């Protein structure tokens, strides 16, 4: 399934190209023959982690002198460490909170200069049991009826849409401390973190898969990757975001071009720009990340960026580190 | 006339005092740890109570830190913790004590060398493994078929209680067994001489004599159950509610602390600080528990 | 007619005796049933895990490094990390824990201060592991600037299990009959001589059991280490003083959360490895305990 040979060639070529393109303003234009070395520490979101892990793995294979440990303490924990300089890159499933004293304010105080780079898109997928033949398409309003804070404990499907059967809605949702939850509630319920307390929550999305797969009248939402791995047990619901496109099913294409709205969310990395200017291996790593993110994110179940957005991110990075 | 005893007597007291000081320092390390914990918790808890009313915190029964509308009633989390721990003890105390009696009174040395490793293996299973066992096996294969999938969900306090009970049984068993084996043989033999059956000897002689050690093991188990984190996180869920229904998904204080720590919350926020407040509450709870246990154990200690 | 019958004077007690014996047999059956239930649970756990892990357990898994592709993934760095932490924790808690227990059980008078020390230690035993994680992060990783290293993790875990080791050791020491101590004193021993040569060897099996159980728990902890920064994706072998690291429980947790079914398989395989490690540890404890208790008779 994985095509490693062409990727290896690409990696080697890329490393060579990177070595050649290493900026520094010096007169020498000869390719650098000094292999990269050092340690790059990364922490942050467990959502972004699978992509970063793959990038780190391939990068280390191409550059054996560099060690890239990647952790997932969570976006918040990651930012706290990032903004005191303990890590080099923070994976984030949400933008940094500029006014938070452990995040934005701490970064300012400690002189940590960062840039927000979007590396992929995650399509939040609403799923139901395969035997559910009535909820093929749900509007944002219907989703809000199901998951909104005023939703009653014994909500019936017929309360959501009179055409649906009068069976209780078995609601599952990701843990309230996850980026997935934050984003969904903001888009669907209109306010971040506002939701019903009558749903079964789980920090581990695999449990949500099991829950929905085992109950005909269940519904859940989570990242696209978990749907793609379980298409035999689940059915994805088309979402009508109120746009001209009507009911849109989540696919790589619709998430990429944002027709699957409003449930396509950006995921980011925040590299330490100051450190990248001083350390060649860090700059090389971020370059490598941006260069390969589209290929790698697809492999782990995320959606690649549209070309123009990717070009913009690369340009932003190049401008930040200079050269 | 040489007197080696006298020259030895001069040397020993100084060495003895040094040893005693060193041992005291080791024991006093515990105080340093406690001070450290209190310091770390107190500061953030104070900051938390600047934003949230302590009255709401300690008397409210609705806890919703991450889902709006926010509510800060810690009683919901406390009820979750107590519910899971109670179920765990209901399982662990009978199982543990029966196992302890078997090991101390009935088993041959060869049987002991088979049974004790079984208990120690269970004790050695990492809590995260037991949590996955509860999640992937106990809930879907035992609890839900037995009680009906409508009555009990993927997560439940019962599942958590069972898993924590399994976790804690070897603790009760091994410490109680040590306590029972310490009862001098003479006491048992005296009872046998008076015509008691083995069960009666256990019930009326060994058990009462070992009661302080047994109670120490139970209190230790209770503390362990209350403080258990990973096994509970995987089996009980994240649905804080004030209930004593074991089939419900709840959230314990420890699970909440983990949820916030490894999640996406910004670490300067009131939501993040709440974990310190919950941690401080937990700390106070176990402190009171242990004071109580110390008193109980002292009252029941048998001298022999 | 008198109940007293010279031919069989005990006859009137027989029904009561039979009843008492029957109750005793019932109780014995209950004891066996308890052990049986525990054994059954253990077997169910092992079978469930082995079935899921079987396709993934091979030498490559044990000697390889983690990868984004389950087929290539291995757990060597995690095993080394677990191992290194285990050793440091053992080395730290054994002397300190036993020393504290000796003080509290043998030397301490029943003064307010000493009772406070003891209460304090029982209290610490009940503090959740995550709180030790918070303490460890603030103290070892930040204040003492050790960074997220194995040493910081080992220190944190040592603090975590120290109270448990102390309590278990105290119980083991108290279980030694007073006669042992009095005999030593009668022979002219000083207190330390009495403790080190008479009481400690007698309590050794109980103390070792307590330490092994505590170490096994320390090695299996995940939550506090996530806080301290047990990096999960580590393809190199950790250096205890300065290196980033990971441990088996965290590797298990991380893999189990991935959507691909193959990751569940390698997570189960990692569980098998950690259980195997526990088995080895317990076997060691067994050998030690059997050897040490041979000469104890009272």
Describe the structure in your own words.
The complex is a heterotrimer of chains A (323), B (304) and C (298). Chain A has 323 residues and is of the alpha/beta class. Chain A has helices at 4-21, 49-62, 75-82, 104-109, 140-147, 157-160, 179-189, 205-213, 224-228, 252-256, 273-278, 280-299, 307-321; strands spanning 38-39, 42-44, 66-67, 89-92, 117-128, 137-139, 170-174, 200-202, 218-223, 235-236, 238-240, 247-248, 264-271. In chain A, strands 2, 4, 5, 7, 8, 9, 10 and 13 form an eight-stranded mixed beta sheet that branches. In chain A, strands 6-11-12 form a three-stranded mixed beta sheet. A two-stranded parallel ribbon of chain A has the order 1-3. In chain A, strand 7 (170-174), helix 7 and strand 8 form a beta-alpha-beta unit. In chain A, helix 2 crosses helix 12 (280-299) and helix 12 packs antiparallel against helix 13. Chain A starts with a helix and ends with a helix. Chain B is 77% helix and 1% strand. Chain B has 304 residues and is mainly alpha-helical. A two-stranded antiparallel sheet of chain B has the order 1-2. Chain B folds into two domains: 14-51; 63-300, MetI-like (MetI-like fold). Chain C is mostly helical and 298 residues long. Chain C has one domain: MetI-like (MetI-like fold, Orthogonal Bundle). Chain C has helices at residues 14-53, 59-63, 76-107, 112-125, 129-143, 150-174, 178-186, 191-219, 223-228, 248-256, 261-293. Chain C is globular and about 85 Å long. The two termini of chain C are 49 Å apart. The chains are: A alpha/beta (323), B mainly alpha (304), C mainly alpha (298). Chains in contact: A-B, A-C, B-C. At the B-C interface, helix 1, helix 3, helix 4, helix 5 and helix 6 of B face helix 1, helix 3, helix 4, helix 5 and helix 6 of C.
